[in-house]
């Protein structure tokens, strides 16, 4: 029986040695050493262990402390076994607390890393933003400088063109002035030679036009007297002979100024001036029309209108105009 107990103790010791070789000696060995000495505080070297390996080793050591080591302690000395089991349980609790602290520290470390990474990204973004703003500012400055240079070139080009145009205009005006002077000299020289002939021809045309107007007025006056004579004798034929043997329709008292001027080779203004001079002298009598005509009025026409007013007494403007047209066109 004693041999069996000895064999069991040896077997447990071998297993313990194997387990001690497998686990870190700094964590478990020193823990056991402190337990043997009766110290209840954990060794300060336990914090140096790795989080995963240390926690796992302590858990497994607790199991063996309560298991094989417990049997060993019970067989050897009952008091020491109880102390080791208590210390194993307290070591497990302290290991759990330490693991929680390590977990919180690791979480804080991970949080700090995330914050640092976020700060780095934010800083990089700000740097990129500043670089982009600097690039845009430089581009804007270059564009502004290019625009100012372009405006300056355009302004200089415009001023140059204006100066060239002004110089060309002065040259053209000077050339035209010299040509006008030469032309005036040439025309003056020709006019001195031909002034006599031109003055005589113009006077001849004027005299012809004046004679034509006087003759036309005399014919109208004679025709009007003959019409009155025929009316008094009771002859109402439409075509009555004129004094020169022509029909009465050929003698008209309405003159178209443009035709008269063209017929006598003068301008309309000259024809109007000659007619006005004859009206002022009393050589002829008549009125101008706004349509470019001149109506010759004989003395008999005035007498007929006066007779109409005396017979009617009081007449309207419309009746007077109608009677004047009838008398003149008859």
Automatic annotation (TrEMBL):
SUPFAM superfamilies: Winged helix' DNA-binding domain. It comes from the Eukaryota. Residues 93-102, 117-163 have a biased composition (Basic and acidic residues). Pfam families: DDRGK. Residues 75-163 are annotated as: Disordered. SMART domains: DDRGK. Residues 83-92 have a biased composition (Basic residues). The keyword Cell membrane does not apply. It is found in: Membrane. It is a single-pass membrane protein. One of its GO terms (molecular function) is ubiquitin-like protein ligase binding. Keywords: Membrane, Transmembrane, Transmembrane helix. The keyword Acetylation does not apply. PANTHER family: DDRGK DOMAIN-CONTAINING PROTEIN 1. This is DDRGK domain-containing protein 1. The lineage of its organism: Eukaryota, Discoba, Euglenozoa, Kinetoplastea, Metakinetoplastina.
């Amino acid at each position: 029986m004693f041999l069996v107990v000895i064999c069991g103790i040896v077997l447990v010791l071998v297993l313990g040695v194997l387990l001690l070789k497998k686990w870190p000696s700094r964590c478990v060995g020193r823990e056991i050493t402190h337990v043997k000495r009766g110290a209840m505080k954990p060794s300060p070297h336990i914090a140096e262990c790795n989080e995963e390996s240390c926690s796992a080793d302590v858990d497994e050591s607790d199991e063996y402390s309560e298991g094989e080591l417990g049997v060993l302690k019970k067989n050897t000395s009952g008091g020491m076994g109880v102390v080791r089991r208590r210390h194993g349980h307290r070591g497990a609790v302290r290991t759990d607390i330490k693991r929680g602290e390590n977990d919180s520290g690791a979480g804080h470390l991970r949080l700090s890393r995330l914050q640092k990474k976020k700060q780095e990204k934010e800083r990089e973004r700000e740097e990129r933003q500043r670089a982009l703003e600097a690039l845009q500012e430089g581009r804007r400055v270059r564009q502004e400088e290019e625009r100012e240079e372009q405006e300056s070139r355009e302004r200089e080009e415009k001023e140059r063109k204006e100066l060239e145009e002004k110089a060309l205009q002065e040259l053209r005006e000077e050339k035209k002035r010299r040509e006008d002077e030469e032309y005036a000299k040439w025309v003056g020289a020709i006019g001195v030679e031909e002034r006599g002939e031109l003055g005589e021809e113009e006077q001849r045309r004027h005299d012809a036009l004046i004679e034509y107007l006087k003759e036309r007025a005399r014919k109208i006056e004679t025709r009007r007297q003959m019409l009155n004579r025929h009316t008094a004798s009771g002859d109402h034929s439409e075509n009555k002979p004129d004094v020169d043997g022509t029909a009465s329709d050929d003698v008209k008292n309405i003159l178209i100024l443009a035709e008269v001027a063209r017929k006598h080779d003068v301008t309309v203004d000259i024809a109007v001036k000659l007619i006005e001079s004859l009206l002022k002298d009393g050589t002829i009598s008549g009125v101008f029309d706004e349509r470019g005509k001149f109506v010759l009025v004989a003395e008999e026409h005035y007498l007929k209108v006066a007779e109409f007013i005396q017979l009617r007494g009081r007449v309207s403007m419309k009746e007077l105009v109608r009677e004047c047209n009838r008398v003149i066109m008859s």
